[in-house]
Amino acid sequence: MKVSQILTDKGREVHTVSAETSMREAVDLLGSRNIGAVVVTDSKGAVTGILSERDVVRATAKDSLGFLQKPVSSCMTARVVTCSCDHTVDDLMSLMTQKRIRHVPVIEGGKLTGLISIGDVVKRKLDASEQEAAAMRDYIATG
Ligand code: AMP
User: Fold this and answer.
1) How far is CA 101 from CA 11, 104, 138, in A?
2) Which end of the chain has fewer CB atoms at under 10 Å, N or C?
3) Across-strand partners of 83?
4) pTM of the predicted model, to two decimals?
């Protein structure tokens, strides 16, 4: 299955913040939307970073709660690993494992068009395994 199909199923909404947004606001967004990461974009919509719950944990360990007054740029990862709609679920699984990340923004025509989380990848892998098992059961029952 390709990334384009996952986005058709789950939608293309991505929660974004600017690099100047306060960490307080970004943490509120992660909590209120029940999400693990927000993508950081500039005024033209270009991706300039990603901030995940792990960055919040790291900042808390380093700086207690003082980081909440700081801008997102002080805690985000600036070199963002992205994918395109043509990547497959297996490509993303390898990418997430190799890079030890759980979120990958999707870029199409230079624009942010979705976000794939590790949960999306695991769901598709489980669905595929279940379909395979059902096909095997059918084959045995009718064979
Ligand atoms: P995660 O596992 O996605 O919660 O993120 C773990 C660490 O990797 C955090 O420091 C994130 O800022 C960073 N990270 C998450 N996703 C990406 C990505 N697509 N590209 C680069 N860094 C990322």
Assistant:
1) 21, 8, 37
2) C
3) 106
4) 0.92
| Residue of 3, 52, 120 to mutate, ligand 1, most atoms within 8 A of C-beta | 52
Q: Which domains does the chain have, with CATH numbers?
A: 3-142 (3.10.580.10)
Select from 1, 90, 110 the least CA-distant residue to 47: 110
* E strand or H helix that includes residue 6: helix 3-10
**What's 110's DSSP letter?**
T
Residues 51-98: tens digit of each pLDDT: 999 999 999 999 889 999 999 999 999 999 999 999 999 999 999 999
- What separation in Å is there between the alpha carbon of 5 and the centre of ligand 1? 23
Residues having CB closer than 6 A to ligand 1 are 36-37, 50, 52-55, 77, 80-81, 101-104
Please give the angle made by the CA atoms of 130, 135 and 141, to the nearest 5 degrees. Answer: 125
Nearest CA to ligand 1 atom 11: 52
User: How is residue 67 written in tokens?
Assistant: 């980081």
- CA-to-CA distance for 120 and 134, rounded, in angstroms? 21
